[in-house]
């Protein structure tokens, strides 16, 4: 049994389920009340690749066509999983119907199913009022999903909480089932007086076999927090076996139907029963980050793209100074001509040219470009910090000889004043970028639910064991950010130590681990 605070949170969760389902029922009824709405036409509108099924990516694209950018692809995938009865990660037409047809009004449901549908081309759109009504249904589904995930996590924080304890708190007479009667009794004991329709809505949302009764397996599967996998149209996932629609009860309460094909009007007399509850990620699948941690990771990667682009722009601007060359730049810091630049030499050299960085910031810079891990930079490693990814700009700098300035007063007198100012600006950009990257690493490391393994699985969309430029770009754009291919390629190049064009798990783990020992929390 649960304690008082845990029962209160469980009550809030059940009330949120009922409220969300009733709100969704109203949205479905408003959509189906539009006389021109035909389910098959709506299905064709979303199925842009004519595959006969709808993926999470197609749902996101539909929402963006209607100016909705706040829905992530991982959330759309979790929505697909909720209605996906065969576990293939996509919605067939019969599964698609369960999202948009009303559950309580059988007459309106049947009238909607009988409407003829014209052909919708790949680039065609439905009437504006229909598109907005469909968008509203999807948004309400996503909002309910977000609200329930938050409440599930609140429940899990309670020391006395477990799915079985929650089930027993509702099933006080140990009957082995949860129905509208003992659910209503539980809510009344905790101060909420639910109507019969609200209780039916709560049961309907969780029920998988359509008998208006929840056994423990159904209840535990629904109340367990999910970790949605952000893949649109990905390969089939393994999921628990479900009872086929032929074996389900013909209970006549207003519950959703299981996607069974309607052969004749005689089959429409029984009230619809929901096809299945959300598919959880199978234990055999690699775990991924929770939505909030994944959002933070993507936001950090977007900031990293911006910073790397700023760094690339500074390198190109410096390359346009015709007297800038790598030999003289290296000699500014290598005062003893050892062919290596230590942390102390770099720090004193920066101060000599008017850039006042801390030892910690100098360490961060050396850590990034020190490929030999000896805490010193040789000429090749130093050049990597100043050669742009742009082939023309880097070739211009690489082939320039030394200016051979005799006995300079200031160390950077080997360059013209304008070039020296650009050189200082380049160093300030380096320091700012490395500081920002370290803050990102510290911020991710401080999140309790974040770890490198799940972060890698979230970014490895096709499960190939490495992260490509296109995968990273797609993940960032799934959160509504728009980045160019070159910007993402610069981040991949920063992570990619062996320069094979992809990022492995070890490379990602090394890059997102905090580098500064003095800042670790």
Give the biggest sheet.
none
Strand and helix order:
HHHHHHHHHHHHHHHHHHHHHH
Give the overall silhouette.
elongated
- What percentage of residues falls in helices of 4 or more residues? 40-55%
Number of helices: 22
Average of the residue pLDDT scores: 83
Sheet-strand content, in percent, reads under 5%
Count the beta strands: 0
Structural category is: mainly alpha
CA-to-CA gap between the ends? 38 Å
Overall number of domains: 2
User: pLDDT under 50 segments (min length 5)?
Assistant: 228-285
* Rg computed from alpha carbons, rounded to a whole number of angstroms: 30 Å
Would you mind describing this structure in some detail?
By secondary structure, the chain is an all-alpha fold. The protein has 2 domains: 4-268, no CATH class; 291-512, EF-hand (Recoverin, domain 1, Orthogonal Bundle). The protein is built from 22 helices and no strands. It has helices at residues 4-32, 39-46, 56-65, 73-83, 93-100, 106-114, 128-156, 163-170, 180-189, 196-206, 216-223, 291-319, 326-333, 343-352, 359-369, 379-384, 391-398, 417-445, 452-459, 469-477, 485-495, 505-512. Helix 4 packs across helix 7 and helix 12 runs antiparallel to helix 18 (417-445). The longest helix has 29 residues, at 4-32. It starts with a helix and ends in a 9-residue tail after the last helix. Mean pLDDT is 83; it is low at 228-285.
């Amino acid at each position: 049994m649960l304690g008082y605070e845990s029962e209160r949170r469980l009550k809030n969760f059940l009330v949120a389920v009922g409220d969300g389902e009733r709100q969704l029922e109203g949205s479905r009824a408003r959509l189906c009340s539009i006389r021109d709405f035909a389910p098959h036409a709506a299905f064709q509108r979303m199925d842009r690749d004519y595959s006969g099924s709808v993926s999470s990516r197609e749902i996101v694209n539909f929402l963006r066509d209607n100016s909705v950018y706040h829905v992530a692809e991982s959330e759309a995938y979790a929505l697909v999983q909720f209605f996906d009865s065969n576990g293939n990660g996509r919605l067939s037409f019969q599964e698609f119907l369960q999202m948009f047809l009303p559950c309580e009004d059988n007459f309106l449901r049947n009238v909607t199913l009988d409407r003829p549908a014209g052909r919708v081309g790949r680039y065609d759109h439905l009437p504006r009022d229909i598109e907005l009504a469909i968008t509203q249904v999807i948004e309400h589904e996503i909002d309910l999903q977000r609200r329930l995930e938050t409440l599930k996590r609140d429940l899990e924080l309670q020391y006395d909480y477990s799915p079985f304890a929650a089930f027993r708190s509702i099933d006080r007479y140990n009957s082995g089932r949860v129905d509208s009667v003992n659910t209503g009794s539980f809510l009344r004991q905790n101060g909420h007086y639910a109507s019969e329709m609200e209780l039916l809505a709560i049961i309907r949302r969780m029920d998988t076999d359509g008998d208006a009764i929840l056994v423990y397996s159904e209840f535990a599967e629904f109340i367990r927090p999910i970790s949605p996998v952000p893949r649109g149209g990905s390969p089939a996932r393994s999921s628990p076996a479900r009872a086929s629609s032929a074996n389900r009860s013909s209970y006549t309460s207003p519950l959703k139907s299981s996607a069974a094909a309607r052969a004749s009007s005689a089959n429409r007399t029984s009230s619809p029963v929901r096809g299945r509850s959300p598919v959880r990620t199978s234990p055999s699948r690699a775990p991924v980050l929770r939505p909030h941690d994944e959002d933070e990771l993507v936001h950090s990667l977007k900031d990293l793209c911006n910073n790397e682009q700023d760094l690339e722009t500074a390198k190109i601007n410096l390359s346009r100074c015709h007297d800038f060359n790598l030999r003289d730049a290296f000699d500014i810091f290598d005062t003893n001509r050892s062919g290596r630049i230590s942390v102390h030499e770099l720090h004193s050299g920066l101060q000599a040219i008017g850039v006042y960085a801390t030892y910690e910031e100098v360490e961060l810079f050396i850590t990034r470009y020190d490929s030999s891990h000896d805490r010193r930079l040789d000429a090749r490693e130093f050049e990597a910090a100043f050669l742009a990814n742009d082939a023309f700009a880097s070739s211009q700098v690489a082939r320039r000889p030394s200016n051979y300035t005799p006995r300079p007063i200031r160390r950077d007198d080997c360059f013209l004043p304008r070039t020296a100012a650009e050189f200082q600006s380049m160093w300030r950009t380096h320091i700012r970028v490395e500081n920002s990257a370290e803050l990102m690493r510290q911020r991710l490391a401080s999140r309790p639910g974040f770890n490198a393994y799940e972060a890698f699985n979230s970014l490895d969309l096709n499960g190939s064991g490495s992260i490509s430029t296109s995968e990273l770009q797609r993940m960032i754009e799934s959160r509504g950010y728009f980045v160019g291919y070159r910007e993402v390629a610069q981040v991949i190049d920063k992570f990619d130590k062996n320069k094979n064009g992809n990022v492995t798990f070890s490379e990602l783990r090394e890059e997102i681990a905090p580098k500064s020992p003095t800042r670790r929390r």
